[in-house]
Amino acid sequence: MTVSALRRLAGMLLTTWLLASAVFLLLQAAPGDPLAALGGDFQSTETRAHLAQELGLNRSLGQRYVDWLNGLAQADLGRSYAYQRPVLEVILERLPVTFAIVLPALLGAALLGVALGFFAARAPHSGVSRLTAALCLLLFAIPVYWLAHLLVQGFSLHLGWLPAQGLRDLRAMHSGAAAWLDLALHLLLPICAAGLHQLAALFLIARTRIADEMRAPHFATAIAKGLSLGHAQWRHALPQAALSLVTLLGMRFAALLTSATLVEIAFGLPGIGRLFVDAARGRDYPLVLGVFLCVLLLTLLANTLSDLLCRQLDPRLRGAQR
Amino acid sequence: MRPQLHRFTLAIVLLVCHAHAIAQGKTLIVSTPADPQHLNPAITTASHTHAVADSLFNGLVALDREMRPQPDLAERWVVSPDGRSVTFTLAKAHWHDGKPVTAEDVRFSFENILLKHHARTSASLKGVIERIEARDAQTVVFHLKRPYAPLLQQLDVTEAPILPRHVYDGADPTQHPANLKPVGSGPFKLAEYRRDDAIVLVKNPAYFKPGLPKLDRLVFRVLPEPRAEVQALIKGEVDFVRSVAGAEIETLSRLPNIKLDRVTAGPGGGNCVMTMVFNLDRPAFKDVRVRQAIAQGIDRQRILRDVIFGQGRVAAAPISSGIAWAHDANVLAKLPFDAQAAAHLLDAAGLKPDASGQRLKLDIVHFPQFARYAQAMRQDLAALGIALESRPYDRAAMIDAMFTKRDFDTGLVSYCNGPDPEIGVRRMFASDAIGPVPFSNGAAYRSAEVDRLFADALTTTDLAKRGTSYRAIQAIVVRELPYWWLVETDSPVAWRASFDGFAPWRGQFAEGAFAR
Questions:
Q1: Which site among B258, B399, B428 would you substitute to test the A interface, given the most A Cβ atoms closer than 10 Å to its Cβ?
Q2: Cβ pair A246, A317 in contact under 8 A
Q3: How far is C-alpha A137 from the chain's CA centre?
């Protein structure tokens, strides 16, 4: 167990180092530099030289790489050029917003998608089941970004139920419990925009996987034993299907973070996705690398979690490892 | 129980409505496309900083819609007969921390901050100002090396905000903590700054202009998506949108509770002309007839109609019509859209079509948001046998390709002329403005005659004489065509009709705004 955990950790560190170095080099290869964004439109050659000196951009590429790795080894992600603050501080400020979208979206999509799949699997060829599947395929095909605008157009402009953008009502400026309610209302559409995509994917997989299990001989045995359909599904189809669902969930996490970026832009929310896009535009190298590492870490974490969960669900996986 | 519950609900509803009405009455919510990063308008020309920070500070003068100077921190001013000194008398104003605004603050702001860190102001005024004298607490005198006509146009809050000396003295203004906790003299004070989310300003009750501001709170909402801005405006979550996308204008113009206006100036500069840049270093452009052919082969009327939805004018001259005394309204009349004439010019230049009908292959670098211009131009030029390949780049990559590496055939740049040709026109043509400076002389155009005329225009304050120099420059550059001027673009501004009194062409656009 400890050996496999250590091996796994070493693998993660190697992956992180390789990918981060690749991004470091790619950033340097991208045309343009941070000076253009920082110095303004009428900057003189002296301003540029001064800025380059200040940011240490006049040092050689190798030197900068070594310094950056050095900092990284000490958990120092450097300072953002644009924010003039430690990268970690800037990221930690934004992370809660992204989590507030991503976690409920993932949880909601998982619960709802699997529940719907559970019932749809009972009659995969019925009209309702087919209609739901078609609807989910459509949802899966709509770009997140466009879905966000459709939701705003419908629920916020047409029906007037929910706010169209932002995190809070800037006019009323609620406090206490009202502020939390206000926040929840503001987050509802962004969570839907990010989550519906995942919901559709999970529903389709859950329905197929559960229906597959229900065609297997062991399921017929369960029914023959006299278990009710629901009980048999719960005990003898869902656990088998759960393995692929949990694996899928771990993999969808990275996709969900990508959708969250688009959702943050569409609704004007200050999360790390938007931070990443703005940092890339301004060629804020330390910040881009910092957000990249943070997202990489979260993805690796999600994958590890889903692996652990799988081991919990499937005794065979536990037995396979020494 | 029932009636009681009803009464209770009614009370709550009334209370909520009431509280809502109070808060709503005097809070203006403005959308802004990018976070300001900091709130010191004196160390940057970035429009997203100025869009917010200009409401916290003052300039010596304010500009009216026609760009004429009006009193701001300076109550009045006198220009000496030889044009070499201007004496300003300051109003009795106070900083947000209660200390008085003095002539020393003005001198300090220019000498220690603006002339070093405000790129536009340092570029245009460093060579002009000899020294600034704080004669007494309320009097400041600008001594100039030579008469400089456009001085007053460059002293508003966008070009030259005045900062408090007692806060910034002895420190590096670019790293100062006050950049995030600003102490200004303006109509509003900072209450809360949430990165990439919202910036809340509140009324400065001790503002030196009686009766102003009329709003209690001015809130900026960072909304990067143009479509989201418009949706929020329609929903009433935002009250004021600067720079509405052209395609949205029609939707908004049909709504009775939305007001629209068009301005040619804003916090990032004014009098902008969308311009095609020819890289004169490229062999293809050695022959002026090729540039003329491209000019005459592009249907600018169609660009005005289909690309910017009528929000502007076809450019009639290299200098914007917004600078009426320098603009030469007839100078481009001899280059009308004429595909046949363009084809003849290309023939004459020896660029015959090959077997597939193609004469020339060019690329065009531009920001992604200008893709529709490039598309319209590509269609027009394809008809002439010129293949125009679009290279959409983000800001950093575009500046790199055009101004640093000079790796491009043609490009699209929105050159903002500003209130005076010295600020935004000279940099396009002067031979000393070729180099790795963003949005300078992208064509790499050199003409000793044009350089001399720009110098001439600066030696006098007489607008008529300066106009003569600038018209002579326009005649030359239209003959030599280092650029092709497509359309003058206006900035469409929209706000909810429950508010009024805006000055959208000014940095301090909400000083006099009020709720109806």
A1: B399
A2: no
A3: 21
